[in-house]
Amino acid sequence: MTHFLKETDFSPAQAAEVLSLAKSLKRNRGKHTPPVLSGQTWAMIFSKSSTRTRVSFDVGIHELGGHPIFLNKNDIQLGRGETIHDTAKVLSRFVHGLIVRTFDHSEVELLSKEGSVPVINALTDFLHPCQTYTDAFSMAERWASNDDLFGSLKDRKMVYYGDTANNIANSWILGAALFGMELVLCGPEGYQPQAEIDAALQASGYDKTYSFTSDALAAAANADVIYTDTWVSMGQEDESKERIEVMKPYSVTSDIMKQAKPDALFMHDLPAYAGMEVQKDVLYGEQSIIFDQAENRLHTQKAIMAELARSARSIAKDI
Length: 319
Ligand code: CP
Ligand code: NVA
Description:
Blueprint (H helix, E strand, L loop, with lengths): L11 H16 L13 E6 L5 H12 L3 E6 L11 H11 L2 E5 L3 H10 L4 E3 L7 H15 L13 E5 L5 H13 L2 E5 L8 H9 L6 E4 L2 H4 L5 E4 L11 H8 L6 H6 L5 E4 L11 H4 L6 H24 L6
Parallel strand pairs: 1-2, 1-3, 3-4, 5-6, 5-8, 6-7, 8-9
């Protein structure tokens, strides 16, 4: 059973297929949608807030012919202490796939081991792979001069500013290795990538393609993409004051954008906090593609679900 818990759960060939499929699903939306989830019900178990992920999965399952069920963790017995083991076994008897947003990454791993349906990681404290694939598609749809979206990412340079130890930074460490990109992580010392992500990279069989620096202006030189994320992730609210203080020098400004290539993209997974991790003129400026990124969650996640359904049932000819 193939799951999508981290970027490297798909091979480079599968990742390339997801990007191509996202392109065709986007182009054909409303005209021709392969009903790859026809007759299926997928459950979305969320323990954290969400706008983009929740809505795009709900709409995406519906558009692929399936039925979504949204389950707030506190509305089901999991929130009252029923084990993940039992929850996985029971839900696997009802639904065809699980989409899970939670805190501890080990919970999605356990659900995938104990259940018997595909599990998609919709964000944990450790990783947010649906975002990475969407980001990759959002860049590739601008850069690819032919159908090779995956190939258009190769050797591109992304500079990520701010909290370089959070789920988005970790995900881009795996993503950069998978897509053959150079990743420069730029932020304060003390919030650097942890050993756990290097171990995940190694366990997936990839070499490290990232470096870390605290020099905000120098980092941006020759960048194709400038990326940032909130300084205070969900669950870190108690640390807000100290995080904001130490990350202030890493706010993305127009001065940083000027160091990058003239046609560099500005990207943010959203929600964004203007005046904090990015200044308003950059967030809503001409180089920003933040709302395309948000829209592309829908197309890319439909492609991810189609890829999982295809792996599970070998229905490639339907797509
Ligand atoms: N980027 C993202 O995952 O947004 P939500 O938290 O709104 O789902
Ligand atoms: N790092 C952020 C991402 C939100 C989509 C968080 O975990 O809150």
